[in-house]
Amino acid sequence: MQFKTKEEAQEYFNFYSKVAGFSVATVAISRTSSKKRNNEVTRITMKCNKWGKTKEIDKECIVPMRKSTVIAKTDCKVIMVISEKGGMWEITRQQLEHNHELTPNSRFFRSHKYMSDEEKCLIRVLKHTNLETRRIVAVLAYLRGGMDHLPYTKKHVTNYAATINRDITNSDMMEVVQMFNKKQTENPGFCYSFELDGENKVRSLF
Q1: What domain of life (predicted)?
Q2: What separation in angstroms does the CA of 182 have from each of 169, 177, 186, 187?
Q3: Which of 65, 70, 123, 155 shows the smallest number of beta carbons within 10 Å?
Q4: pLDDT for 23-44, tens place per residue?
């Protein structure tokens, strides 16, 4: 198969992994040594996240029936390699046989917790209307076909909303400064000043 961009190829394999029931890990990225091509990526190797073997020290951290951030490795051989050829991205190596159980359409694999650009745009719009996060999550879940189909949690939406709030705060201050600068050119007697705190945030404005 061929893809127009590496992102398209990665999204394809990630979507396949979600349906099949495993998580993807990008384990290697090769770049060109040509100065003319400015260190461009030419090959990406993706594997099942159970590739390799669990270290002895990690085994001690795996506790049955409890949450654990340590992945129990099974030396799974599933792999997909994509390479850039003539401006297109092509699958140059593939092995899809797992040596462990799969959990199709699980919501809890790290590589599947993604938001589309459309969803991010919608969150920004709803955030501007001061809609509560839980209601934003409800809207997103409805569009996905139910909460079971939402590949991320309320916490992920809250984190993204926090970045929006920071952007809004920064852009609001920039607009104020631009307005004051314009006013200063129109009226030479106009002056302004603002004071910053330890984190370089505007604390007061005169």
Answers
A1: Eukaryota
A2: 20, 9, 6, 9
A3: 65
A4: 888 889 998 887 777 778 999 9
Residue whose C-alpha is closest to residue 158's, from 127, 187, 186: 127
Q: What's the CA gap between 199 and 13, in Å, rounded?
A: 42
For the chain, the structural domain boundaries read 1-50+69-110, 172-205
Query: Can you say how many angstroms the Cα of residue 94 is from the centroid of all Cα atoms in its chain?
Result: 25
Region class of 152: left (phi > 0), else alpha (psi between -120 and 50), else beta: beta
Q: Which residues of 74-107 are buried (b: 16+ CB within 10 A; e: fewer)?
A: bebebebbbbbeeeebeeeeeeeebeeeeeeeee
Say if CB 47 and CB 13 are below 8 A apart: no
Shortest CA distance to 115 belongs to which of 141, 82, 89?
141
Q: Helix, strand or coil for residue 28?
A: strand
What tokens does 68 get?
A: 């654990």
The answer to whether the CB of 104 falls within 8 A of the CB of 21 is: yes
pLDDT tens digit string along 64-104? Answer: 444 444 567 888 999 999 999 988 999 999 999 989 888 77
Question: Do 76 and 99 contact (CB within 8 A), yes or no?
Answer: yes
